[in-house]
Design a protein that fits this description.
InterPro entries: Hydgase_Ni_incorp_HypA/HybF_CS, HypA/HybF. This is Hydrogenase maturation factor HypA. Involved in the maturation of [NiFe] hydrogenases. Required for nickel insertion into the metal center of the hydrogenase. By secondary structure, this protein is of the alpha+beta class. It has a domain of 79 residues: hypothetical protein PF0899 fold (2-Layer Sandwich), CATH 3.30.2320.50. The chain contains two helices and six strands. The protein has a three-stranded mixed sheet, covered by helices on one side. A three-stranded antiparallel sheet has the order 4-3-5, with no helix packed on it. Helix 1 packs across helix 2. The protein is elongated. The structure holds zinc ion. Zinc ion binds next to loops.
Length: 113
């Protein structure tokens, strides 16, 4: 499952930060997840719960902040919101779109102790 490896990646980031910043527990993780990142949020939450067991982030609060998808429409020559890959341009209904934002997932902030 794709989300399992994403959750593993997050724990890896947390462990690296723990070494750098010298903390031993993570109490809250805030993730920014793009609408177009192809991440199933429920599945990510489940995976995160499983993966963080017996780690420094066990039982921590996971906050997910959605990042809107954004695309450039070559027909309209403007940037338009795009909520799903494969959707048409909301202005002209065309498909000459290039995704410009909302494809990333990253750790936005941490609460630690
Ligand atoms: Zn358009």
């Amino acid at each position: 499952m794709h989300e399992m490896s994403l959750a593993e990646g997050i724990v890896q980031i947390l462990e690296n930060e723990a070494k750098k910043q010298n903390f031993s527990r993570v109490t809250e993780v805030c993730l920014a997840v793009g609408e177009l990142a192809g991440v199933e949020l429920e599945s990510l939450r489940f995976s995160f719960d499983v993966i963080t067991r017996d780690t420094l982030a066990e039982g921590c609060v996971l906050t997910i902040e959605p990042v809107s998808g954004l695309a450039y429409c070559f027909d309209c020559s403007v940037q338009v919101p795009l909520h799903k890959r494969g959707d048409p341009c909301p202005r002209c209904g065309g498909f000459s779109l290039q995704v410009v934002d909302g494809t990333q997932m990253r750790v936005k902030s941490l609460e630690v102790e």
